[in-house]
Specification:
The protein is an alpha+beta fold and 196 residues long. It is built from five helices and eleven strands. Helix content is 26%, strand content 33%. A five-stranded antiparallel beta sheet has the order 3-2-6-5-4, with helices on one face.
Length: 196
């Protein structure tokens, strides 16, 4: 058991990447999920969304802790006599990773997966990356291959959003949307770029 993305490993990976590729062409991928490790039975770990992690903490009276070395939160609990460790990402751990994007001058940061994150990540994300382009890896790899993109606006004012879809032939299709304050919009990508 351990951090999903320990900061020393993330930084060494970024440092290597920028030594090989111009920083303005690189995105830092960050996890918005965690893992629940049963330390009695071992792998595999169970993946968790942030809300699920907080529900476990509440149900078992587990106190979230923070590992300074990895810049990652974790908690421990016991269920049916078996000890568990949950390592996850929160606002504090995300700030440490977002700072790397600025430190190394990266093009931006991509998070996996919307809806899994600590809601507290959005303020630091906006403060550090609002001028950058966001890249989202979403989609389905099983039939019927439907792809939806969730666009969220946690701000107090409306947001103008430009969504660019890259097609298989390298061409692009662009759509513009206005997202109301503190709202979300589901975009069915198959309608915008059919058969892609």
């Amino acid at each position: 058991p351990g951090s999903t993305a320990p900061i020393n490993w993330v930084e060494s990976t970024v440092a290597y990447a920028v030594s090989q590729i111009p920083a303005q062409k690189l995105l830092l991928g960050v996890p918005w999920y965690g893992y629940d490790w049963n330390t009695a039975t071992g792998p595999p770990a169970r993946s968790l969304r942030y809300p699920q992690t907080m529900e476990l903490a509440s149900r078992f009276g587990a106190t979230p802790q923070y590992d300074e070395a990895s810049q990652s939160p974790f908690l421990k609990y016991t269920q049916d006599g078996q000890e568990h460790q949950v390592w996850y990402e929160d606002q504090r751990s995300m700030i440490a990773k977002l700072e790397l994007a600025n430190k190394y001058g990266l093009a931006g940061v991509g998070g996996w997966r919307l809806g899994h994150e600590d809601p507290g990540v959005w303020d630091p994300w906006k403060a550090r990356l609002s001028y950058r382009t966001w890249y989202l890896a979403e989609g389905c790899t099983c039939k019927p291959f439907d792809t939806w993109v969730l666009i969220m606006n946690p701000n107090e004012s409306p947001a103008n959003v430009t969504v660019t879809f890259m097609k298989e032939n390298g061409g692009t299709v662009e759509r513009k949307y206005r997202i109301g304050p503190q709202s979300r919009f589901n975009l069915f990508a198959n309608e915008v770029v059919p058969n892609s």
